[in-house]
Amino acid sequence: TTSSSSSSSTRKHVRASLENLRKDKLIKSIVKGEKEELGPGGGALKFNHYFISYKVFIDVVKYKLDRMRKKIDQDDQLQQNCQFHLCKSCDLRFSDLDVKDLID
């Protein structure tokens, strides 16, 4: 029973991972009936078949990388616009120019 429960757990994990990849449009799926294998009602069993559409995969990866690059650029710009230094003893904030004057 231990191997069947771990097998079931593994199948659930694989299905969840495949579903996440499908939602992210990195893979596609189609459902096909297999006539050779009959289900409990005598009808054909249906199976999900997963595949990669390479053109769509590349477009999705390029899109995600572009969004990441834009987010990083936006964060860098925000960080450059809001740079300050905090004095630990008095909790005052100083800009880069203020710190330069204080040190001199």
Which geometry do the CA atoms define? elongated
| N-C termini distance | 75 Å
Strand order of the largest sheet: 1-2
What is the makeup of the main sheet? 2 strands, antiparallel
Content-based structural category: alpha+beta
Oligomer: single chain
Approximately how much beta-strand content do the residues carry? 15-25%
SSE pattern, N- to C-terminal: HEEHEEH
Helical fraction: 55-70%
Q: Tally the helices: what do you get? A: 3
Rg result: 27 Å
- Give me the count of strands: 4
Low-confidence stretches: none
Average residue-wise pLDDT? 83
Would you kindly provide a brief summary of this structure?
With about 100 residues, this protein is an alpha+beta fold. The chain contains 3 helices and 4 strands.
Characterize the structure shown.
With 104 residues, the chain is α+β, with helices and mostly antiparallel strands. It contains 3 helices and 4 strands; from the N terminus they run H-E-E-H-E-E-H. It has helices spanning 2-23, 54-81, 96-103, and strands at 28-38, 44-51, 85-86, 93-94.
Task: List the SSEs and their pairings.
Elements: H1 2-23, E1 28-38, E2 44-51, H2 54-81, E3 85-86, E4 93-94, H3 96-103
Antiparallel strand pairs: 1-2, 3-4
